[in-house]
Amino acid sequence: MDAKPYLVDDGTIPQAPDPSHRDAWLSRRKLLEAAGERSTPLGCRPGVLGRLFNMIYPVFSVALRACGLYRAGVRNALDLRLREIELEFADLPAAFDGYRILHMTDLHIDCLPGLADTVATLTRGVSVDACFITGDYQEGHGGPADPIIDHLKVALADIDARDGIFAILGNHDEGEFGLALERRMDLRLLINEKILIRRGSDRVLLAGTDDVSFFYSEGADAVLASTDGEFGIALVHSPEMAEAAAAGGYSLYLSGHTHGGQVSLPGGRPVVTRLIRNRELAAGLWSCGDMTGYTGPGVGVTAVPVRFFTRGEVTVLTLRGAR
User: Fold this and answer.
1) CA angle, 156 as apex, 151 and 162 as ends, to 5°?
2) Which long-range contacts (CB under 8 A, 24 or more apart) does 224-232 make?
3) Would you put residue 197 in left (φ > 0), alpha (ψ -120 to 50) or beta?
4) Which of 107, 73, 97 is nearest to 187 (CA)?
5) Inter-CA distances, 238 with 11, 27, 117, Å
6) What is the mean pLDDT of the chain?
7) Partner of 285 at 20 to 30 A CA spacing, among 11, 144, 156, 261?
8) pLDDT digits over 287-298, tens only?
9) What tens digit of pLDDT does each residue of 302-312 get?
């Protein structure tokens, strides 16, 4: 991403990524990827549950086809909506009153034919101040980056975001893929990093972590430990770090990972969240202490490409000062 005049380098929060930080992170990330275990805020967990789900998914797919529900589920998965939400904050700097954020999460952009075009159509003509993407760009894990990035270029081509696109990684995203994404697209990746965004003399702090649901490291705690006295927005792939961000003084926390359940009970209650904690934060708006959070239902889907009783979305969040 080209240098922007509204990103601040004040000597403590650098505008550009620190190469030594990135190198250390990538070395650690590759070790976690090779370990075959789930590194979480509660420690390492064996991948037994994931392997169990991988055995169940084909059976579920066959059952849906047998019942004649599979095509309906696919149609549901492609029936995305644009949702608009206003959020009020007593501590929002005055110049950011009305600041519009386009939030997308769990794009899994290769999960269904036509998904990239659907996203492009839905976001075309939507003018925002910034676009935040909270991870999971592909349906699988690993593999060539080029096809995924080509799909993403289609999906994101018409986004009109004054301050640019900022992104983090999810559990489907390998470290090397994330760096390739940043090199080849006009976006800034935040990997346990912070930046400041300025409007006149006012500014907000934006922090982004690496995935914490499978690739947790202490760097996520470090970046969420403090907002440095600024109004803080945290981008984390899952809601599992909500308490840490709230304790650090963050005002807004944006996440995904759960797909809102993807297949939920009538009324939208998720059946499976894939969270090890904070399952009550698996979908929609929530609060943790003085912090507001939003767990988006995601754009794409994984495993069995269907949705029932959930709807994928891209979300426009408008920030307002206290009235």
Assistant:
1) 160
2) 224/248, 224/250, 227/251, 228/12, 228/13, 228/194, 230/196, 230/203, 230/204, 230/205, 231/89, 231/91, 231/92, 231/93, 231/96, 231/203, 231/204, 231/205, 232/204, 232/205, 232/206, 232/207
3) beta
4) 107
5) 30, 22, 26
6) 92
7) 156
8) 999 999 999 999
9) 999 999 999 99
The runs of H, that is alpha helices, within 68-110 are 70-78
**How many alpha carbons lie under 13 Å from residue 197 in its C-beta half-sphere?**
22
Spatial contact of 195 and 13, defined as CB atoms under 8 Å apart: yes
pLDDT of residue 52: 75
Output the pTM of the full model.
0.94
**8 A C-beta contact, residue 258 and residue 282:** yes
Quote the CA–CA distance of 319 and 272 in Å, as a whole number: 31
Structure tokens at 167: 């992104």
Q: Please name each of the domains of the chain with its CATH number.
A: 45-321 (3.60.21)
DSSP H or E segment with residue 25: helix 19-35
SS3 content of the chain, % helix, strand, coil (to 5): 30, 25, 40
Does the pLDDT at position 87 exceed 60? Answer: yes
Helix (H, G, I), strand (E, B) or coil at 104: strand
